[in-house]
Amino acid sequence: MSWQNNLHSVSPYIAGEQPELTDMIKLNTNENPYQPSLQVQKVIEDFKSENLRLYPSTDAKFLRKALAEYHHLNTDQVFIGNGSDEVLSLSFLTFFNGQRAILMPDISYSFYPIYCELYRIPYQKIPLADDFSLSVNSYFQENGGIVIANPNAPTGMAISLQEIEEILQNNQDSIVLIDEAYIDFGGESCLPLLEKFDNLVVVQTFSKSRSLAGIRLGIAFGSAEAIAHLYDVKNSFNSYPIDSLAQKIGEASFTDETYFQKSVSKIITTRENFKNELIKLGFQVTDSKTNFVFVHHPKIDATTLFKVLYEAKIIVRHWNQARISDWLRITIGTDREMNTVIQFLKEYLKNKEKSY
Amino acid sequence: MSWQNNLHSVSPYIAGEQPELTDMIKLNTNENPYQPSLQVQKVIEDFKSENLRLYPSTDAKFLRKALAEYHHLNTDQVFIGNGSDEVLSLSFLTFFNGQRAILMPDISYSFYPIYCELYRIPYQKIPLADDFSLSVNSYFQENGGIVIANPNAPTGMAISLQEIEEILQNNQDSIVLIDEAYIDFGGESCLPLLEKFDNLVVVQTFSKSRSLAGIRLGIAFGSAEAIAHLYDVKNSFNSYPIDSLAQKIGEASFTDETYFQKSVSKIITTRENFKNELIKLGFQVTDSKTNFVFVHHPKIDATTLFKVLYEAKIIVRHWNQARISDWLRITIGTDREMNTVIQFLKEYLKNKEKSY
Predict the structure, then answer these.
(1) CA dihedral B298, B301, B305, B307 (to 10 degrees)
(2) CATH 3.90.1150.10 residue ranges in chain B?
(3) Which residues get modified to N6-(pyridoxal phosphate)lysine (chains A, B)?
(4) How far apart (Å, rounded) are the C-alpha atoms in residues B286 and B129?
């Protein structure tokens, strides 16, 4: 007997590297290349540190209200967490407490099975088709819950509002969690379905389209009943997860719709241009509705490509994992950054062909 | 069958009220009456919001390093969490995973049993003596872990380093978690015992003595092995719990030792003066080593006293709970605030005596 016998053993999630090179092109964690709204800068400048002696609002009251108004929902339908990873984590803990396995695509955000192992939630992976498309029919079976990223990561591919509605219609006895971390880059949000389904929970984040990965804010939207349960679990986990400054920064980021739309549009335009250039170079590229592309080249091994890009100080993401080990995920940066990537790949492919 | 059947049912912790009255004297959540170090203000002023587009360090690397240096420990002995509530929560999940009940005092931080219920950890409450003192012998029995707040809350009373060492000596096969949230106000930290015991975990916070309740930073110190396990669980729960600004603010608060010592001393002096005045008024007051006092008046019902204080806009804390329902916990504010409380109580007692 030793204290080590009482440990909860887990295999943790490994986040994308945050390297300390200064002259790199960092395209590995889907960060936004543009700064957050200038309203955020203003809030920070105006913040008085003496306020920090007091505890923040336990449930980020004003931020929830701002988000509810923005999305035409009630405040009690909005949950704020410490990044969407925490929102997902607490959602798994709250909603997936049944005996039956929860369902998720076999290729998706790799944190989902890790939450399941942390909380000992049985789960079943449903294979995507060979082209990474999702068939809703495979979710018409008994389950203890469903989690689907829409658009999906790392494929970038989206399913339609109608498909989500079909899943909901066939699964009214378990929570259907739709992770919309990347929804603002071209997918269709299922928030309107909250009117019809009290078992739908939609998770979004400030980290991607709002350029606020550094401040850790995530959201869950759902029925007042579901959100109340999520708050009960949150209040059994941590009283005050969102600091005062983060609450104010979150509010500020929703006051400048013009800037938001402009920076999102820019990323979408860059993505489409980048994608076309990649196709010209012989890459296979999925139909991404996100701020990244998922790519494969029939003539280059992805592990090798990851390495040569890294040596050229271009950092992308690669998984040594069945079905996707031949693929790379590349975040959309600025036009300039993506041009550098294209120029590098052109050169690399030219030299490679010469060497045949 | 319905989605509600899959819910994880809990009775959440209820934090002290954060009322929105502006002219109140808020002595209910043990906040520091003094502002944080001016270095904190400077860090906020200098912060560039464009940095927020990037994810923060997953493990608050520089802040851990600063804390390790301050306490003469190694960086791998330091864990940073989103407030000490999160640190405690993740510690319970990580370390208390055995079959045997964990032990805790019957009167202590009311979050402990709530974590146990959240994670389904069996626990046993060990009664304090009638004078709220803790007998170490009652912790010499089989257990799956031990958690003790030192100084204790809400009693404010501390145990000695030697007593903690005795507990550790008799419990080398389970984690002994010492919650030192209030340690800087007069208790003796058990950090030096980390040299001898790899099963000791010490939790501290930035919320009390560092005046940073609003920024949500908590710490666990332990053996490199214990801390690595805690990080594994944290990395299965949430990748990036501490935002970039909070990491910098935490670092800044440790650069101004003079200010820190001065504000802590001031609170201790105010506490002792306040305590003496209360005793003169007939109150029974425990020997507090914290920034609050725990008080009882033989002639006044605590529920009534709580109410009349509230009506006078003086907000303190009361629990409707066995053994302490006759007691109030009063945070130490400024001298001026505590004088107002004393004046009010003098007046109230005088009028009460008249009415006999």
Answers:
(1) 180
(2) 16-34+257-355
(3) 208
(4) 13
| Eight-class DSSP state of B77 | G
Low-confidence stretches of chain A (pLDDT < 70) are 356
CB contact under 8 A, B54 and A144: no
What is the rounded distance in angstroms from the CA atom of residue A292 to the CA atom of residue A274?
10
B51: contact with A, CB 8 A cutoff? yes
Closest CB to B7 among A16, A94, A213: A94
Confidence of residue B29 (pLDDT cuts 50, 70, 90): very high
Q: Does B44 touch chain A (CB under 8 A)?
A: yes
How far is residue A339's CA from residue A191's CA, in Å, rounded to a whole number?
36
User: CB-based contact (8 Å) between A93 and chain B?
Assistant: yes
Question: Which of A233, A184, A178, A176 is CA-nearest to residue A206?
Answer: A184
DSSP-derived secondary structure for B133-183: ---GGGG-S--S-EEEESS-TTT-----HHHHHHHHHT-TTS-EEEE-TTG
For B244-275, give one letter per residue: b (16+ CB within 10 A) or e. Answer: bbbbbbbbbbbebeebbeebbebbbebbeebb
Instruction: Write the DSSP symbol of residue B323.
Output: T
Give the helix ranges, DSSP H, for chain B: 38-46, 61-70, 83-95, 111-119, 161-169, 224-237, 244-253, 257-280, 302-311, 335-354
Please name the residues in contact with B150: beta carbons below 8 A apart, sequence gap of 6 or more.
B158, B159, B164, B178, B179, B180, B183, B187, B190
Q: Is A303 on the interface with B (CB under 8 A)?
A: no
Complex ipTM: 0.96
Which residues 166-225 on chain B approach chain A with CB closer than 8 angstroms? 172-175, 198-199, 207, 211-216, 225
Answer whether residue B353 shows pLDDT above 90: no
- Asked if A14 is an interface residue toward chain B (Cβ–Cβ < 8 A), one would say yes
Q: Which chain B residues touch A267 with a CB distance below 8 Å?
A: none
In the block, residue with structure tokens 């984690």? B175
Predicted TM-score of the model (pTM) = 0.97
Nearest to A173 among B3, B54, B244 (CB): B3
- Look at residue B319 and give its three-state secondary structure: coil
Give the chain A residue whose CA is nearest to the CA of B26: A54
User: A16-34+257-355: which CATH topology?
Assistant: Aspartate Aminotransferase, domain 1 (3.90.1150)
The minimal CB distance from B82 to the residues A5, A174, A238 is found for: A238
Please list the residue range(s) of chain B that carry CATH number 3.40.640.10: 38-254
Residue identified by tokens 């002259």 is A23
- CB B214: neighbour CB atoms within 10 A? 26
CATH code of the domain made up of A38-254: 3.40.640.10
Instruction: Give the pLDDT confidence of A320-341 residue by residue, as tens digits.
Output: 999 999 999 999 999 999 999 9
